[in-house]
Amino acid sequence: MDYKAIAQQTAQEVLSYNQDTSGWKVVKISKKVTVSSKTSRRFHGNIYRVEGIIPESTAKLSDFLYQPANRVTWDRSLKVHNMIHRIDSDTFICHTITQSFAMGSISPRDFIDLVYIKHYAENMDIISSKSVDFPGYPPSSDYIRGYNHPCGFVCSPLKENPAYSKLVMFVQTEMRGKLIPSIVEKTMPSNLVSFILNAKDGIKVHRASSGHRYLNGHSSLQKNN
Question: pTM for the full model?
């Protein structure tokens, strides 16, 4: 399987979602986070678009979101997030296990996702992910194996204040199992708002406690004093 080619194609698809302005319906606005959705072309469900402002530069925000090592320390929707295979400095495969949500009516899922960061002009970064098959991590009886159709983060400098970033997230997750679609549709918007708020809190804590240094496989960035 040509993982690199799949990663590049996924990033291009996320870019196309970001450029697509038609058909989105706002389903929730809370604490300056906007969630919109429309019918996915990939599966019988919705694709969600989540927008928020993060008080951090785009380069540092991208580094923070890309590195898997500390994801579970701030992302309360996950209980496991491990890199299981590195392809190159910009591409790796992760095994993720979610927490249960919707008051326990949606049990934990696990995912095998191909993650890739691509830098674009005007300081825009896309961190894309898509579920793939990976030898050594077949589905187990412990968890229902979910599937992420092309998802990702689009990080770009806020025009009014480049020290801040606009974060746009796209999610189209097929939970699988015997779930009533309406349960997912009712709970997903609130969970997506929580993700953005958790990321804002997480980057604030990380900035204060990491010696002002961001480290991952592709860069090391000093905090501006």
Answer: 0.90
